[in-house]
Amino acid sequence: MTEIFTYTAYRQLCQMFLAIIFFHSSEYIIAIFIHGTSNVTLKSLLISKNYLAAMIFSLLEYFIEIVLFPGLKEHWWVSNLGLAVVIVGEIIRKTAIITAGRSFTHLIRISHEEHHKLITHGIYRCVRHPGYCGFFIWSVGTQIMLCNPISTIAFAIVVWRFFAQRIPYEEYFLRQFFGPQFEEYALRVTSGVPFIK
């Protein structure tokens, strides 16, 4: 059993848990900093039943593969590539949150508030939904980092489908709030999630 849990396994699992802890705690801390403690709930940690199920599935895959195919987890270059992808996704998402400031929320706004502005500068100049783009990259990167082939594909599909439904729903309200200004912006700037206009 000790041979199964090599240095590589410990490194990959530690990186995974650190990535998850940093992602969620920094989301929560930034939300408190931007919106104040009275406006932030535990929902800002972004941990749902589906998310927990996906992470448990990925760990289950990891442990099954490390027992049955230990060599699969020894591809350092793949794991390091995954770590780089996680960092890139994290940077994109946190840049989006900080750039949008009070206009960024974890829940889709269905009514316009005075401080809610259409953000089109900074990273939003290149991508309409950099927060979603960053999360998509981050989530797939966590599975590449673990050398989990099944979860890499599954996470890409599931997270893409989630955003394929969420982006049009959110943009329906953005069109209501910002009218032609948002229309022009949406025509000019990509969503940031592959194959979602």
N/C terminus separation: 48 Å
The major sheet is characterized as:
none
What gyration radius follows from the Cα positions, in whole Å? 18 Å
- Shape designation: elongated
- The percentage of residues in β strands lies in under 5%
Count, helices:
5
Tally the beta strands.
0
N-to-C series of helices and strands = HHHHH
**Helical coverage, percent range:** 55-70%
> In terms of per-residue confidence, which ranges show pLDDT below 50 for 5 or more consecutive residues?
none
Could you tell me the mean pLDDT? Answer: 92
Report the structural category: mainly alpha
Could you characterize the architecture of this molecule?
The chain is mainly alpha-helical and 197 residues long. The protein is 66% helix and 0% strand. The protein contains five helices and no strands. It has helices spanning 7-35, 49-68, 76-100, 130-145, 149-188. 25% of the residues are buried.
